[in-house]
Amino acid sequence: MPTLIKNRSVVENPWVIVPKDEALEALLARSEEQLLVPAATWLEHRGALLASGKQLGVWLDSDQHPEIIAADIPSLPVIALNFPVFSDGRAFSYAFALRKHYAYKGELRAIGDVLRDPLFYMKRCGFDAFDLADGVKIEDALSAFSDFHTTYASTVEEPLPLFRRRFAH
Predict the structure, then answer these.
(1) pLDDT tens for each residue of 126-162
(2) Which of 44, 74, 136, 157 has the most CB atoms within 10 Å of its CB?
(3) How many domains is the chain partitioned into structurally?
(4) Which pLDDT tens digit goes with each residue over 43-53?
């Protein structure tokens, strides 16, 4: 079974990412029980998907704001945000919005072109699971969470900026 990083540990990944172009019939015929379905498929076929009895999560592409699934956010065990290319950082903002504005408590997963270098910052925005891009060594990626020890700005992890933390003591 494939692995990923979740809560700074390597774990098995039982969730299968369903491609955008997969037909509903093929999706429902899959033998896997835990599926991450594209947001468009979720929105179009929500009833049929829920009736399947499978565990379902939703993945959003970088041009899809979480507001399109706002009504379902509390009930989804996994929401994945796609990084189609390293230079597309819109999912950082979406992760922050999911945690802060939508109060999402489930697993927030980074998928796509997920490389080692931005993992520290992804975590600070609210991601807790990382499905690394092919070729990224998982042991090297784990070290990314220790790249920095003091941060200045406020984030999902640390709501107070450094100057507020310094004067709070």
Answers:
(1) 999 999 999 999 999 999 888 766 665 667 767 766 5
(2) 136
(3) 1
(4) 999 999 999 99
Contact 66, 60 (CB under 8 A): yes
- Among 48, 55, 93, 99, CA closest to 73: 99
In whole angstroms, give the CA distance from residue 67 to residue 133: 26
pTM of the model: 0.89
Three-class SS of the chain: CCEEEECCEEEECCCEECCCCCCHHHHHHCCCCEEEEEHHHHHHHHHHHHHCCCEEEEEECCCCCHHHHHHHHHHCCEEEEEECCCCCCHHHHHHHHHHHCCCCCCEEEEEECCCCCCHHHHHHHCCCEECCCCCCCHHHHHHHHHCCCCCCCCCCCCCCCHHHHHHCC
What amino acid is encoded at 42 in this protein?
A: W
131: domain CATH number is 3.20.20
